Amino acid sequence: MKNTTLNSRLPRRDLSADLCVVGGGMAGICASIAAARCGIKVILIQDRPVLGGNASSEIRMWISGAVGKNRLETGIIEEIRLENMYRNRACSYALWDMVLYDKVRNQPNLTLLMNSSCLDADLEGDTISSVVAWQMTTQTFIRVNASLFADCSGDSILAALSGARTRTGRESSSEYNESIAPDKSDAAVMGMSCLIQAREHESPQPYFPPDWAYVYETDEALPYRNHKLNKSNNFWWLELGGESDPIADTETTKDELLKIAFGVWDHIKNRGDHGAENWQLEWVGFLPGKRESRRYVGPHVLTQNDITKGGLFEDAVAYGGWPMDDHHPGGLNWKGKPTTFHRAPSPYGIPLRCLYSVNIRNLMMAGRNISVTHSALSSTRVMATCSLLGQAVGVASAISLKNETLPHSLSPSKVRQIQDELRDQDVWIPGTERKIPELTQRARARCGDGDWALLNNGHDRPIDLDSKKTSLDQDADPAVSETESQKSQERPNCWISELPAWIEFSWQQPVAIKGFRFVFDSDLNRKTMGTRQALNMPCIRPLEGWRQGPPETLVKSLQIEVLDDAGDWQQAGELRSNYQRLVKIGCPVTASRVRVTFTETWGADTCRLFGCEVF
Predict the structure, then answer these.
(1) Tens-place pLDDT, residues 322-336
(2) Of 196, 254, 412, 554, which has fewest CB within 10 angstroms of its CB?
(3) Global pTM?
(4) CA distances from 70 to 2, 161, 322, 430, 458 (A)
């Protein structure tokens, strides 16, 4: 350790791992879990007392992602969403924090260091050998030695400590031939926000603002800002800081945002008729949520043109689909429209080459700090997309280490191995098919009704016949707008059968079976749960409440049977109270016939599956 950094009187710890992830937002969570599940040792360093980053109870931005029908992100982020829908019926942020904590803390191969700020790094040439974190609760310095590092911190702290190449601000339109970029490059970024949360009551609720809050006497003082109290408003437009240093000036910007937040609520409650008599300010975020700061430079820099062309990369490992949603750097000081939506296809691919440093050999990144231009960042920064990027980094890290190489040296065959593993983890890589296990391919299958062929075609969601036809009207709300993809033709690609439903596999000779893989229908458009339920948590809580539960379409229970030598069916496995989309059941048996019977859903009359395989 470097004596220039550490006070020798304070305790020190040394830890080692295969992968060290810095930053416990949604990208860091998904990277850590994915890598640990691939069998490598992971340490996650998080500088806050809770996980989730911008989605945590400290900031409370809901998780958004690709727009359009059947575009909802699956994999670990869907697993987390479904866990929250099952455990957190009343949408409590305390329980949301618990869901994230539980996923990380109880994941084998994963060590979590909370309240720990990364403050130094040791390098050997162009390779990071260790990082140092200060854990404020234990007043201990912790050095983490690792083979690979993943920066999911948002602000790219490992770049500042290692000398990795980064960019900040907006490129000129001529640098990458981007039509939505400014004529001249500058240091401006999208600002940060302190959100507010309100709750409706049955009786009037007075509000007395602090003396230092700003005063907005009329609606005209807040032009183009939606301050109506409805479910689609989480006050994201309480924004500032885009014209300041996005890191060095964070505390100053936060102070200004708090004056704005308390002043805006004073405007809603006390200055005009906004239908807010019975509404109470329940929570104000004292930690700003950031949209943009440092961006790493990787072997490829994703641009506006890459996005508009659909991101057709051979090394695609994730996808985006949010519009290029460019917030004006002036934030609330800008009296025009706070953001401009530029059309983008949904989905578009994001390549692995955007997820590792161009000059630090063992440094990867996921989240809003990947290798993109400012224009492309305006789309890739949303948290569901960042979650997919994190899962890709976790899998890529594990496969790199198992092959004793570094990400930039991965051969095309190893990149395909990463893609195969991601697809097996229920990550959709648009335009590709998942490999079907050889044992399933050899089986003769039959079922009660429905089209069996839909279960072994390598696609685990409905298929658009023209998946590129997705755009967004410039001034629309992307969370609720109809897109062109919603109008395009679609193949359901889903096996549907009346309950109880059954599928049987048989082989000419007994085979050794390890288990079963199922992909159930979690209602990717959340039709069974209301328009906004694709979002993880609400910020505005009307009197009628906001409740959730598992999607009705999910299979809740099933049983697995094998045919014994006497010709009788014997139970070999079961699933009860399932609430997940991707389910793998270990069932080591040797048999020539097996049968799966689906007995119950969370409310639907039919069983709906995208995948049912034997491996």
Answers:
(1) 999 999 999 999 999
(2) 412
(3) 0.95
(4) 51, 41, 13, 12, 16
